[in-house]
Amino acid sequence: MSNSREQSIQQAMTVFWQKGYVGAGMRDIQTALDKRPGSIYAAFGNKEGLYLAALEVYTQGIADRLIACSHAAEPLDALKEFLGTPLLQNDEDTYMRQCLIVKTQADWLELPEGIQNSLRKALGNVRDGLIAVIEAAKAKQALAESLPTEQAATWLQGQFIALRTMATTVDDASSLSWMLDKMFSDLKKQW
């Protein structure tokens, strides 16, 4: 019955990703972690503490991937691959097509203030990563120097949210590929 903290966070992340913060009950979490409530509370304080740990790990993973994209030989190609990979999850992992941040954000009005604040920070981190990719692409002349970086990052983040939200309901992968291609085509156009 003993799982490491990292394993517990990963297992809880899956529950939150599948059910959302509001929809995930402590019984769901206990079952996934194969732990008694007392050990979960001792390790994380409460459900919110566990979610915040999972969100931090998830957000750091996205931030790391975006920084890697900004350092790639072709930042836009790396970003497109990063954004497209989750869209192709098989049926049993369909929940992974949607971003955990976006999934939780859908319950905004029901979330504790601490989670709302962490979501704002997570969205800011994603936006900062997109800014880094755009700046790297501009430096490599893959995007026009006149492209307004912050505006483009905000737009890309909106497209990312829409794409990842729609990906859970679209069965035709070619539709998702078309949307991803359109995002990058539009990014390169005149602003």
Automatic annotation (TrEMBL):
SUPFAM superfamilies to which the protein is assigned, alphabetical: Homeodomain-like (SSF46689), Tetracyclin repressor-like, C-terminal domain (SSF48498)
Domain HTH tetR-type residue range list: 2-62
Claim: Transcription regulation is one of the keywords in the record: yes
Feature: DNA-binding region: 25-44
Record protein name field: HTH tetR-type domain-containing protein
Transcription regulation in keyword set: yes
Record-linked Pfam families: TetR_C_13, TetR_N
Keywords of the record: DNA-binding, Transcription, Transcription regulation
InterPro entries: Homeodomain-like_sf (IPR009057), HTH_TetR (IPR001647), Tet_transcr_reg_TetR-rel_C_sf (IPR036271), TetR_C (IPR011075)
Alphabetized GO MF terms: DNA binding
